[in-house]
Design a protein that fits this description.
The structure holds two protein chains of two kinds. Chain A is mostly helical. Chain A contains eleven helices and no strands. Chain B is mainly alpha-helical. The chains are: A mainly alpha, B mainly alpha. The interface between A and B is medium-sized, with 28 and 19 residues.
């Protein structure tokens, strides 16, 4: 009988420093928490829900929005993990120089993109104005939990060019850190929870007496800082990948 | 091109006001004043750009509530 059980082969026999992998993971989580699109969509959504519904319903809708976003992150991570774990471990790992240089190139590119393109001059984000208008107007027609869940699920899609490479490198790092499939899956879920923490923080921000005007003012005031910091984090991640290869 | 709709503007401002925690009575009163002044400014104009309309409403709203005016003006900058 054939045994077709898929196991994460990268969880074994790799000598890349665990500390480098942990550094990559921490940086990936940090970058995820500095990406602005989903918290912006959530802030607008929550503002609209609080203006239209009771406090309880607004909280319930925002919880379903966050669950939708979390589902999208988990799906994305496990999809990439499945692809990576079914490929030969000798080709897809953080010790393969070709793969590492490609990833480093992508992150250098994202570093420049984050610095020059992520924020526009007038404070808007990088996505097309038509998509932004749709995302801003969509909360007006959300009435129930399933709508909120689907909206949360879809809201991460425009930011995938910035998040997918992070997911990819995180899975490789997680595979390097843990020693068996179970901690790998656990670490992926832990990473996914950390990735949506900014949404909980945004919710808390609103529930502690702040409003959308404060959120917008804060974002516009610190835009240059976010731009530099995000670009810098992507740059450090690329450097760390190459450093891990050399050391 | 879209047609200016007083009711949709009123509805949108009411939702924003409630979300910002402005008491309903006060919000109602200054939204009415804002729309009245806006309509007065628009009198005689058959076409106006969205940006101009936004600027007029912002200018009026700012007299009554700075946060509401700010949210109305900068809503599209959130994404």
């Amino acid at each position: 009988m054939l045994n077709l059980e898929i196991q994460p082969p990268l969880c074994y026999n790799l000598s890349m420093s665990v500390f480098t992998s942990l550094g990559i993971l921490i940086l990936a989580v940090l970058i995820s928490s500095f990406l602005m699109l989903i918290p912006g969509i959530f802030a607008n959504f929550f503002h609209h829900a609080s203006g239209k519904y009771t406090r309880t319903k607004a909280d319930s809708l925002s919880l379903f929005f966050i669950l939708g976003t979390e589902t999208m992150v988990v799906l994305g991570l496990f999809l990439i993990a499945t692809i990576i774990w079914t490929l030969p471990p000798s080709t897809v790992n953080l010790e393969n120089p070709i793969l590492v240089w490609i990833l480093a190139g992508i992150f250098f590119g994202l570093s420049l993109t984050a610095f020059f393109v992520y924020f526009r001059k007038n404070g808007q984000l990088f996505i097309s104005r038509k998509t932004a208008a749709t995302l801003i107007d969509r909360p007006k027609s959300i009435k129930n939990s399933s709508d909120a869940f689907v909206f949360g699920l879809m809201s991460g899609i425009p930011e995938l060019p910035f998040t997918l490479p992070l997911y990819f490198v995180s899975i490789l790092a997680i595979s390097n850190v843990s020693l068996s499939p179970f901690p790998c899956a656990g670490l992926i879920i832990f990473y996914a929870i950390l990735a949506v923490c900014p949404l909980f923080a945004t919710h808390l921000y609103f529930r502690t007496g702040h409003n959308l005007a404060d959120f917008l003012r804060h974002r516009l005031k610190n835009q240059t800082f976010f731009r530099i910091f995000l670009g810098l984090l992507y740059f450090i991640l690329a450097t760390l990948l190459i450093g891990g290869l050399i050391l | 091109m879209t047609t200016f709709n007083e009711n949709s503007l009123r509805k949108e401002l009411k939702i924003d006001a409630r979300a910002l925690g402005i008491p309903a009575g006060a919000a109602e009163s200054f939204i009415n004043e804002t729309i009245k002044s806006t309509l007065k400014t628009l009198k005689g104009k058959s076409i106006i750009t969205n940006n101009d309309l936004k600027r007029i409403v912002y200018k009026e709203l700012k007299k009554y509530h700075a946060d509401l005016a700010y949210v109305y003006k900068n809503r599209d900058k959130i994404i």
